[in-house]
Amino acid sequence: MPSTQPDLLPETDRALRHRLATTQVSARAPSLVGAVVRDGRPVWLEGRGSIDGAPPGRDTQYRIGSITKTFVTLLVLRLRDEGRLTLADPLGDHLPGTAIGDATIGSLLAHTAGLAAEPPGPWWERSPGLLRPELADVLRDDPLVHPPGRRFHYSNPGFAVLGALVAHLRGKPWTEALAAEVLEPLGLTRTGPQPSAPHATGWAVHPWADVVLPEPIQDYGPMGPAGELWSTAGDLARFAAFLLAGDDRVLAPASLEEMRFPASAPEAGSWQSSYGLGTQLLRRGDRLLTGHTGSVPGFLATVWVNHDEGVGAVALANTTAGLPIGGFTADLLELVADREPRIPDPWQPLPHVDRALLDLAGPWYWGPALYVLRPLADGWLELGTLAGGDRGTRLRPTGDGTWVGQTGYFAGELLRPHHDDAGAVTHLDLGTFVFTRQPYAPPGVIPGGIEQPGWRTDEPGTR
Q: Where is the DUF7586 domain (predicted)?
């Protein structure tokens, strides 16, 4: 269980309020609401500006734009985990009749299918969805602008197609599947495709004058899975807590982790950001933030979480432009993480360690390089090198006396202990890397053998 920490210190609360207030003023946003999550619950939530004469609160709805894509991704991965599809499957295997049947489902989730960024026709977010009543209407006659798999290219039509895939396989609209499979289990009662009071009006703020223009609220039709949802600071705070801690009722932990693993290369000039599966990744100093931003006419939104420190932040605004909401939300998260570092749970001995695992603990050598192997809870192992680098890994037990690497260089590689006739472990084999208890010993297990008489004291280059 995570340790319970008190609510924020007064100086942290004031710093968050100051950041919220100055941003709302400098961006001239009609309203702005932010929240911070720690240890699975909101520890700060505040709004500035006005919605119907009052500051926005926990239950004030805003349109969240492309954060919708992360919700759709959960539905697709649930289908994958049920065995209904794989991410390597061509779309046409499960949703026939589109012009992009060869695109893999995984490439659509990662925006690497090469699709155009926007559908044909007028600006879709300000146009009635009836202009594109059919799924075929969201794809251009020539839907590809890049060779598949060549590069990351953000595509709204790609997620429209994924929403249609969910609807086709579930036999009901994607919004109904979302409500039953994600929103209800997580208690997101104020999240959905249509607004309900209290909700914000979307505004465009004049760039050179303090006047505003209302933005139209459209039903996006088949483009809905790309950005149609409405939500609140309270609901997105719960969603951030889910992204941090998971919930088996919604998605398996391994699948949730998979969403934040980079699935595409970043732009050459932007190595601080990348994309996973329906999830944006942002590097801020030593912190990796994952989540998603959202932007549609009249509304901006972001949810970021940092798993190492167990902190998340969300922000919602009802303005079209002029507020770098992704950076603002990251600032909220970092204000708490920097001022109130996470207090770790107390150290406790493991409740049980198999004797065979304990016998594996300690120093191991790959050639002359020193590694340390430690048993963890639930039969996992951790292999680390004293020299640092990417050759360390955490290893998951398979149940047959072997382990599979989960991180770093050895991710996916199999660790197998080898024994002598008496049953003692002679060496470990991890993806053909041989680890022994002494440097290059015993000789019989070292690939290439050992030149006799072994270790020596003469100078290099001499005999």
A: 353-437
Read out DSSP for 315-365?
Answer: EEE-BSSS--HHHHHHHHHHHHHHHSPPPPPPP---S---HHHHHH-EEEE
Contacts of 158 (CB under 8 A, 6+ apart): 103, 108, 111, 113, 115
Q: Look up residue 124 and give its two tokens.
A: 């879709």
pLDDT tens-place string over residues 136-192: 999 999 999 999 999 999 999 999 999 999 999 999 999 999 999 999 999 999 999
246 sits in the region (left: phi over 0; alpha: psi -120 to 50; else beta) called: left
Q: What's the rounded Cα separation, in Å, for the pair 374 and 399?
A: 18
The DSSP H or E segment spanning 199 is: none
8 A C-beta contact, residue 138 and residue 222: yes
What is the spatial distance between Cα 29 and Cα 384, in angstroms, rounded to a whole number? 49
Closest to 414 measured CA to CA, from 440, 387, 432, 426: 432
pTM of the model: 0.92
Query: Cβ–Cβ contacts within 10 Å for residue 420, how many?
Result: 11
Q: In sequence order, which residues have a C-beta less than 8 Å from that of residue 423 and are 6 or more positions away?
A: none
Percent of the chain with pLDDT over 90: 88
Rounded to 5°, angle at Cα 277 from 273 and 278: 85
Which residues are paired to 372 by β-bridges?
363, 384
* Cα(31)–Cα(57) distance, integer angstroms: 10
Q: Which two tokens stand for residue 151?
A: 């590069």
- pLDDT number for residue 457: 85
What pLDDT does 177 receive? 98
Q: Which residues pair with 293 in a beta bridge?
A: 302
Burial 288-320 (b: 16+ CB within 10 A, else e): bbbbbbbbbbbbbbbbbbbbebbbbbbbbbbbb
- Residue 4 pLDDT exceeds 60: no
pLDDT tens by residue, 368-390: 999 999 999 999 999 998 776 66
The answer to whether residues 136 and 221 touch, using CB atoms and an 8 Å cutoff, is no
Domains of the chain: 10-339 (3.40.710.10), 355-445 (2.40.128.50)
Break the chain down into helix, strand, coil percent, rounded to 5. 30, 25, 45
Instruction: Enter the tokens of residue 232.
Output: 């609140």
CB 160 within 8 A of CB 251: no
